[in-house]
Each structure stands twice: as C-alpha cells, then as structure tokens.
Amino acid sequence: MMKMWKNNRRFILLLILIILAFFFFVKLHSYKWFSPLTIYLTFLALIFYAWETRKLRKESTRQIDIQIRPYIIPRFDRNHFIIENVGIGLAKNIYIEDKILHFPGQNERLVYSFERINIVRPRSYTTVKVLVKDKNGNELDPDNFLIYFSPEYLRESNDTNDLIFHFENIENEKYTANIEFGKEIKIKSLVKRI
Questions:
Q1: Quick count: other Cβ atoms within 10 Å of Cβ 174?
Q2: Cβ 90 vs Cβ 166: under 8 Å
Q3: pLDDT for position 167
Q4: How far is the CA of 113 from the CAs of 67, 103, 116, in angstroms?
Q5: 157 — phi, psi (to 5°)?
Q6: Per-residue pLDDT for 3 more than 60?
Q7: Eight-class DSSP state of 150
Q8: Nearest residue to 87 via CA among 20, 187, 182
Q9: Bridge partners of 193?
Q10: Closest listed residue to residue 78, CA positions, set 158, 142, 154
C-alpha cells in the first residue's frame, strides 16, 4: 500500500478531491455549488496535467540529448592512442588533460601531453599524437611509454590510470569524461558542463 501511495500520490489526491466534490454536490442538493466546484475541479485537473506534461517534456528532452550525444572512447592499437566516437553525434574540440605519472621507486616522472582534436565524426576514429617528457623536460619516444595506458600492462600490474577528456557536441554543449585505464577501459563519469 505504501509503495502504491508513493508512486501514484498525485493521482490518488486528485481522485479524493473528485469524490469529495461529488459528495458535496449530492449531499447539499443545491445547484449553486455546482458551478464554482466545477471550475475549482477543472483548475486542479489543469494544474495536474500541466505538471505531468512538464515532466514528460523534460524526460523527452533528456532522452533526445542522450541519443544525439557523442560518446568518446579511447583505445590502443599497436602502440597508437586512438579516440573513437561510438555515438551518433559529432564530437568536436576534443581536449585531453595532461597526465603526470610518478614512479616513486625509480624517482621518475613522465608527463603526457595529447594533441587537440578538432572533429571526430560519428562512428569513426582518429589517432592522437602523444608527446611524452621526462622530469627534466626531455622529449621521449611515445611508443615506448604508451604501454602504461595499455590494458595488457595494467592487467598484469593491477594498476589504473585516469585521463580526463573535454569535448563538445554539434550544439556546442560541453562534456567532461573521466576515463579509467585498468584491466579494462571504463568511463567513470560523463558530465554535461554548463
């Protein structure tokens, strides 16, 4: 009973108001109550339907947004870092925040910088150029250091690395995705920025 009340609260309240209105109409046997009561009940019904329509419109807009949103998925292919758009919306202005990896036992630090990507069309991919520098600022060969993001390496080492992606859709709505590289690649969060 409690579950039914929570799910249909507005409908049950409206039903109770209609029954009470009918009771007053029949009990008083007077037509002078009929007109104001009818207007009052019509007003309540309009408010109820307007509220429900608003909820439907919001949900419909949310569903359309989800359908046309680009979905950026990073992956590796033979030491190449690839960004794939698996959504049906165009992704543009893709920016990956620089990532710093510390290796305390070796007193080493690597800084990964990623090329900005202008556009990734729906259901397509592009290779991202990666610049890797050591703690002294010397450039290193990225092919030797992309291994720290590959699922094979992370599966063996039981380690994880995160990258933060920023991108926009065709309507200039901005998104931020936090993607974890571990035994598998996971999207930890995908947030629409305002």
A1: 13
A2: no
A3: 93
A4: 31, 17, 9
A5: -90, -10
A6: no
A7: S
A8: 187
A9: 174
A10: 142
Cβ atoms < 10 Å from Cβ of 138: 8
Q: Output the CA–CA distances (angstroms, integers) from residue 150 to 114, 117, 132, 156, in the order listed.
A: 16, 21, 15, 10
Distance in angstroms (rounded) separating the CA atoms of residues 110 and 167: 24
Decide: helix, strand or coil at residue 74. Answer: strand
What is the pTM (predicted TM-score) of this model?
0.66
Beta bridge partners of 113: 131
Which of 191, 168, 193 lies closest to 178 in space, CA to CA? 191
- Provide DSSP, 98-127: -EEEEEGGGTEEEEEEE--EEEE-TTEEEE
Average pLDDT (104-109) is: 69
Long-range residue pairs from 75-82, CB within 8 A, at least 24 positions apart, any chain: 75/125, 75/185, 76/146, 76/149, 76/150, 76/151, 79/143, 79/146, 79/147, 80/127, 80/146, 81/114, 81/127, 81/128, 81/130, 81/142, 81/146, 81/149, 82/125, 82/126, 82/127, 82/128
Tell me the residue length of the chain.
194
**Judging by beta carbons within 10 Å of its beta carbon (0-12, 13-18, 19+), is residue 6 exposed, middle or buried?**
exposed
- Provide CB contacts within 8 A for 130, sequence distance 6+: 81, 112, 113, 114, 115, 142, 146
- Residue indicated by tokens 């259901």: 123
Cα(101)–Cα(181) distance, integer angstroms: 13
Instruction: Report the Cα 27 to chain-centroid distance in Å.
Output: 55
**What local confidence, expressed as pLDDT, does residue 30 receive?**
56
